[in-house]
UniProtKB/TrEMBL annotation:
<keyword id="KW-0816">Tricarboxylic acid cycle</keyword>
<dbReference type="GO" id="GO:0006099">
    <property type="term" value="P:tricarboxylic acid cycle"/>
</dbReference>
<dbReference type="InterPro" id="IPR022383">
    <property type="entry name" value="Lactate/malate_DH_C"/>
</dbReference>
<keyword id="KW-0520">NAD</keyword>
<feature type="binding site">
    <location>
        <position position="34"/>
    </location>
    <ligand>
        <name>NAD(+)</name>
    </ligand>
</feature>
<feature type="binding site">
    <location>
        <begin position="10"/>
        <end position="15"/>
    </location>
    <ligand>
        <name>NAD(+)</name>
    </ligand>
</feature>
<dbReference type="GO" id="GO:0004459">
    <property type="term" value="F:L-lactate dehydrogenase (NAD+) activity"/>
</dbReference>
<feature type="binding site">
    <location>
        <position position="152"/>
    </location>
    <ligand>
        <name>substrate</name>
    </ligand>
</feature>
<feature type="active site" description="Proton acceptor">
    <location>
        <position position="176"/>
    </location>
</feature>
<feature type="binding site">
    <location>
        <position position="121"/>
    </location>
    <ligand>
        <name>substrate</name>
    </ligand>
</feature>
<comment type="function">
    <text>Catalyzes the reversible oxidation of malate to oxaloacetate.</text>
</comment>
<dbReference type="Pfam" id="PF02866">
    <property type="entry name" value="Ldh_1_C"/>
</dbReference>
<dbReference type="Pfam" id="PF00056">
    <property type="entry name" value="Ldh_1_N"/>
</dbReference>
<feature type="domain" description="Lactate/malate dehydrogenase N-terminal">
    <location>
        <begin position="5"/>
        <end position="143"/>
    </location>
</feature>
<dbReference type="InterPro" id="IPR001557">
    <property type="entry name" value="L-lactate/malate_DH"/>
</dbReference>
<dbReference type="InterPro" id="IPR036291">
    <property type="entry name" value="NAD(P)-bd_dom_sf"/>
</dbReference>
<feature type="binding site">
    <location>
        <position position="89"/>
    </location>
    <ligand>
        <name>substrate</name>
    </ligand>
</feature>
């Protein structure tokens, strides 16, 4: 069986980490694409020279030409400008929308059968635009945000309880912004939901509220520390988990930015929801019953995503 092909559009901080993880996990051969001459080539060569030491088999190459994406099975898009300190995700809209237009055209031409994972911010609006620009089926284009947001939530919870991260499961809904909705009721430690742990005296509601707040601001916390860029290890690991579920037909249920056609009462919008990812792309959306508080939070988050989508339509009337 021929190896799978993974195309990484954007060979920056996340792109390089994606290539390393895809290689180490032997998910397939990796093509790094970027507009910067030499950067994807240099990173690919450096990583190819890592393979003998780490002992993985994957062909890694770097390119400035969309042609090299030909026949890719998975495309992960990080092309664009990352958030700088003091810059909101929304400030990035205009710049990164143009990038999505170019990337969408490249994917449509060279790998229209691929499963596409978008990471570029502002995430929910960019994945919406990328799907429209590429014309790929909506179930084959997703955004990576919820796995990362939930991973942050899981880490903070494991730290609070002093338990293994493996036994902490967490769910976040909504857009990838400060109004995302970490779902306390659906998050568990060793299978025990968080509200039960409050009753059992393991933690307090105040501490949980502080963790929810830190989760919402998790991206900004890293930006403030790094000063010259945004998070890249955990975002890359999160997108690789999604790619692996598709390539291996694992049918994992992961929080992803998926296209909604009436689920959760939302239409023609990408927003974070639990979805099953398998060989068919997004195979199922888990249309959860929400409490009135959760619903209010989710609706607020959807409204801000819709605001960004409307702004995209104003900037690029072709999308309207
Ligand atoms: N086509 C291809 N690549 C592009 C384009 C384009 N039109 N425009 C920019 N790039 C490349 C840049 O040259 C750079 O190498 O995208 C890469 C982005 O890499 P970084 O600046 O290192 O950003 P990174 O930290 O990887 O984050 C990428 O993910 O989390 C989001 O907000 C973040 O949108 C950003 C993205």
């Amino acid at each position: 069986m021929a190896r799978k092909k993974i195309a990484l559009v954007g060979a920056g901080q996340i792109g390089g980490t994606l290539a390393l993880l895809a290689g180490q996990k032997e998910l397939g051969d990796v093509v790094l694409f970027d507009i910067m001459d030499g950067v994807p080539q240099g990173k690919a060569l450096d990583l190819a020279e890592t393979a003998p030491v780490e002992g993985f088999n994957a062909k890694l190459s770097g390119t400035n030409s969309y042609e090299a994406l030909e026949g890719a099975d998975v495309v992960i898009v990080t092309a664009g400008v990352p958030r700088k300190p003091g810059m909101s995700r929304d400030d990035l809209l205009g710049i990164n929308l143009k990038v999505m237009e170019q990337v969408g055209a490249g994917i449509a031409k060279y790998c229209p059968k691929a499963f596409v994972i978008c990471i570029t911010n502002p995430l929910d609006a960019m994945v919406w635009a990328l799907q429209k620009f590429s014309g790929l089926p909506t179930h084959m284009v997703v955004g990576m945000a919820g796995v990362l947001d939930s991973a942050r939530f899981r880490y903070f919870l494991s730290d609070e309880f002093g338990v293994s991260v493996e036994d902490v499961h967490a769910m976040t809904l909504g857009g990838h912004g400060d109004d995302m909705v970490p779902l306390i009721r659906y998050s568990t430690v060793g299978g025990v939901p968080l509200p039960e742990l409050v009753k059992m005296g393991w933690t307090t509601q105040e501490k949980l509220d502080a963790i929810v707040d830190r989760t919402r601001k998790g991206g900004g916390e890293i930006v403030a520390l790094l000063k010259t860029g945004s998070a890249f290890y955990a975002p890359a690991a999160s997108a690789i988990a999604m790619a692996e579920s598709y390539l291996k037909d694992k049918k994992r249920v992961l929080p992803v930015a998926a296209y909604l056609k009436g689920e959760f009462g939302v239409n023609d919008t990408y927003v974070g929801v639990p979805a099953m990812i398998g060989a068919g792309g997004v195979e199922k959306i888990v249309d959860l019953e929400l409490s009135s508080d959760e619903k209010a939070g989710f609706e607020k988050s959807v409204a801000s995503v819709k605001g960004l989508i409307e702004a995209c339509k104003t900037i690029a009337p072709a999308l309207a």
